[in-house]
Amino acid sequence: MTNDGMAQIGWLGTGRMGAVLVRRLLAAGADVSVCNRTKAKAEPLAADGAKVVDAPCELANARLVFAMVGTSQDLIDAVIGPAGLMSGPDAPAIVIDLSTVSVEASQQVRRALQARGTQFIAAPVMGNPRVAQAGRLTFAVSGPAEAAAEVQPYLDLLGSGASYVGEGEIARTVKLCHNLFLGSVMQSLVEVTALANKSGVSREAFLACINKSVMGSTFTRYKTPALVNLDMHATFTGELLRKDFDLGLAAAREVEVPMPVAALVHQIVQSLVGHGYGQQDFAALLLREAQAAGMQLTSEQADVSDGLDPV
């Protein structure tokens, strides 16, 4: 423990989201050591007070280790791989994974950690780096209840709400359901935006109306600048959305739940990636919708808010 009673923390993965979250912990006074596959990407965090280490196993003497990585295989490699977190003699008390990965990968990591006496918490995030900067990330949490309770104060520092949903890997299913909903809502939003726009209504005016209505939400508000001004700088790419639809539809097949709307959106997202928009923000679904409607879109150059005031 540090002098202020906070546990020593290790952090695996300092990409766009990971770096934002590490800085939130550092700002709260936490003692954080970080490791990234490409060390140069972690080094800027040293200026904020993080200790940058060369190998994941150097984090294993921390009580809590968070992981924020891109894929299921990345999680396996970073935690239980030959050069991973658990490759040395030390083992943390709890590993908390914030990534979106498959249930199978999560189970594999959980079993390996349990064999070493380490508890595993699945806590996939809901939100993007901009949401994280505003302190509005939320988390679905599953695993041993006692470990989840210990981790809760740190998740509260990282975002605005963590929901404990049960034992095992059930948080993975919650996150996949969230992202299936996210993609389906986005496709619906771009369709009606294109309809209004082609009918003569500016996107700014249409989305302002939606955002003031009962259909408006945090999501519609924070995607409004991208849809109005066609800023497709990635907060969550089309390729990542496709990955989550792959995982979510596989989970649905496993329990025999039909997903006709999600299955259609999956193919639209595949088309988005196939047309070269995979590295852009998934708001680029508007560009594909416009192409299908024979529209030539231009930025409206409007000063619109994303509604993400920090909390």
Give a verbal description of the structure.
The chain has helices at residues 16-27, 39-42, 72-80, 103-115, 129-133, 145-158, 170-198, 203-212, 218-229, 238-254, 260-277, 285-292; strands at 9-12, 32-35, 51-52, 64-67, 94-97, 119-122, 125-126, 138-142, 161-166. It has 311 residues and is of the alpha/beta class. The protein folds into two domains: 9-168, NAD(P)-binding Rossmann-like Domain (Rossmann fold, 3-Layer(aba) Sandwich); 176-292, N-(1-d-carboxylethyl)-l-norvaline Dehydrogenase, domain 2 (Orthogonal Bundle). Strands 3-2-1-4-5-6 form a six-stranded parallel β-sheet, sandwiched between helices. The chain has a three-stranded mixed β-sheet with strand order 7-8-9. Strand 1, helix 1 and strand 2 (32-35) form a beta-alpha-beta unit. It is globular and about 65 Å long.
In total, the number of domains comes to 2
Strand content: 5-15%
Helix content: 40-55%
Strand order of the largest sheet: 3-2-1-4-5-6
Instruction: Give the helix tally.
Output: 12
Overall pLDDT metric = 95
Q: State the secondary-structure class.
A: alpha/beta
Question: First CA to last CA: what distance?
Answer: 27 Å
* The first-level CATH class name of the largest domain: Alpha Beta
